[in-house]
Design a protein that fits this description.
Elements (H helix, E strand, L loop, with lengths): L2 H14 L42 E12 L3 H7 L5 H11 L4 E14 L2 E16 L15 E19 L6 E22 L2 E2 L3 H5 L6 E17 L2 E8 L4 E3 L2 E3 L2 E9 L4 E8 L3 E3 L2 E17 L2 E12 L2 E13 L3 E8 L6 E8 L1
Helix pairs in contact: 2-3
């Protein structure tokens, strides 16, 4: 085993057992869900590090993201709660405490990038489900069980305007800032446990389309990347620098740090993690994220990224692996991303024309 291979395997293993995680939507196939990075973004994602916008080729970009992310075995456990066998149903409700969440994401958008300036219009549709199991009434007391599911539908239409790049010509330090103007909509439905399981099927809650409340959010993000030695970079991002309440969710600043190492001319290793846990829509519970990834330049026209990501919401974590491939020419780029998961694995596509 070469030193490069050993270092890569150690980094992935460390990330898999590291601090709990929650990641943003990987718009434009650019983020840790697909083996990339938020701190050391390819410069495409307006939600990632704005200091990296200069890295992106000039052009017009289109993106589509779709898929599920769940706590481990969440779907099979939810299915088992409807068992006619009281013992099996009780066991499932007990397991639900360790795997209470599911999130379905669909997003699409357009962006224009030129010389470190970014303008993006994006839409995200988030369908979340969070279980609150009653562990005091199981077995013989199952008839009095008060478990319920909290299902939420949140959508956001977002205008992002930002810029970033080296602080001066030839500098190894890059800085950036990004302003987000967002129109959020929220809808909520609950399902109580009773004879035969939850009255509303969990799949229905994840497929909800209605929203009843609307609000606005204006947020400022910032980022910094510093090359401390040849092939060694440090980076920091800050999102939602201005705190705000949106319904029962308190949006606070979140800080993320990363380390990137060049392993030869064609390979880069990245380690990154959120430094604090914060609430993010659609649920008023703390979330945090970390990841490790490896970036391979297969050729001047092909880029492969692979990594591992762990997420934790309200105490329940899950680890996923993801990968993405970008094929670039002077006038065209195609990107494809995939993250292994349950039910509907997350996938993404990006198209750029110059």
């Amino acid at each position: 085993m070469t030193p490069k291979t050993l270092l890569t395997r150690i980094a992935l293993a460390v990330s898999a057992v590291s601090a709990p995680l929650w990641a943003q939507t990987p718009l434009f196939t650019d983020g840790s869900a697909f083996g990339g990075s938020e701190v050391f973004s390819e410069g495409l994602n307006p939600l990632a590090n704005s200091a990296r916008f200069k890295q992106a080729p000039n052009g017009y970009y289109f993106t589509f993201v779709d898929g599920d992310q769940r706590a481990q075995n969440n779907k099979s456990i939810l299915d088992s709660t409807s068992s006619a066998d009281p013992a099996a149903a009780s066991a499932a409700l007990g397991q639900l405490a360790d795997a209470p969440w599911a999130l379905r994401t669909r997003a699409y958008g357009l962006a224009a990038l030129k010389d470190g300036a970014s303008l993006a219009l994006t839409r995200e549709e988030l369908n979340g489900l969070l279980a609150y199991p009653d562990l005091a009434n199981l077995g013989a007391g199952l008839g009095a069980n008060t478990s319920y599911l909290d299902g939420r539908r949140a959508t956001v239409d977002r205008l992002s305007v930002g810029g970033g790049g080296p602080v001066q010509q030839g500098s190894t330090t890059a800085m950036g800032a990004n302003l987000r103007i967002e129109r959020w909509a929220m809808g909520e439905a609950t399902a109580s446990y009773g004879a035969g399981g939850f009255g509303t099927a969990p799949a229905d809650l994840l497929g909800a389309s209605g929203t009843t409340d609307k609000s606005w959010n204006v947020a400022l993000d910032a980022g910094l990347v510093l090359e401390v030695a040849q092939g060694v970079r440090l980076g920091v991002t800050a999102s939602q620098l201005n705190p705000k309440h949106l319904w029962d969710v308190y949006l606070q600043p979140q800080f993320r740090a990363g380390l990137q190492l060049d392993l030869g001319q064609m390979t880069r290793l990245t380690l990154e993690s959120d430094l604090n846990s914060v609430e993010r829509l659609p649920f008023p519970v703390k979330q945090q994220s970390s990841a490790a990834s490896v970036r391979f330049a297969l050729s001047p026209a092909a880029l492969l990224m692979a990594g591992v990501e762990q997420k934790k919401i309200d105490g329940a974590s899950v680890t996923r692996i993801g990968a993405s491939l970008q094929i670039r020419t002077d006038s065209l780029m195609l990107g494809f991303g995939f993250q292994a998961g349950q039910d509907r694995p997350m996938k993404s596509m990006t198209l750029m024309v110059n």
